[in-house]
Design a protein that fits this description.
Elements lengths: L10 H8 L24 H16 L4 H8 L4 H14 L7 H14 L1 H10 L3 H9 L7 H13 L1
Helix pairs in contact: 2-3, 2-8, 3-5, 4-6, 4-8, 5-6
């Protein structure tokens, strides 16, 4: 069965594992790197946020697990995670259907997370971030690094 039919892991992640870099010429579609290392004062918080994001993107976390990770999180962090997934995995991204399905499984089963993200949208940090950065141009690790640093700092 080819990568086109592999719905458990995004296709670009699967190509990362075997060294098959089919997306080298496409600036927008980068491989999803789950091996990001964080250091510094808020490294534990960054690792936890990144793990929650990775669980949704890769489908490695069941909705219950994602809920358990995100329910105690800052509403603004939840907003950023959901927004990054929606913007990065836009409708033209080859893994859109799989990743958005993973996100929908979480948000449909746990509507309180959707409300939490909506509450986080009003934080002044969101306006600052969206005026400074573009979601599609940031890796998941970069997003988590910037956002957690700003929220915790």
């Amino acid at each position: 069965m080819g990568d086109d039919f592999d719905f458990d892991v995004p296709a670009d992640f699967a190509s990362f594992e075997d060294g098959n870099d089919q997306n080298d010429d496409d600036e927008e579609e980068d491989e999803f790197d789950t091996s990001v290392e964080f250091s510094g004062e808020f490294a534990d918080e960054k690792r936890a946020a990144f793990e929650a994001l990775c669980g949704i993107v890769t489908g490695a976390a069941a909705p219950e697990e994602s809920y358990a990770q995100l329910d105690p999180a800052d509403p603004t962090l939840v907003y950023f995670i959901f927004k990054w997934i929606k913007k990065y995995y836009h409708r033209d991204h080859p893994d859109n259907a799989v990743v958005r399905s993973n996100l929908s499984a979480v948000t449909n089963q746990y509507r309180s997370l959707t409300r939490k993200a909506k509450d986080g949208e009003n934080d002044p940090i969101v306006e600052w971030f969206e005026g400074t950065y573009r979601y599609r141009e940031m890796s998941a690790g970069e997003l988590i690094d910037v956002v957690v640093e700003k929220l915790e700092g």
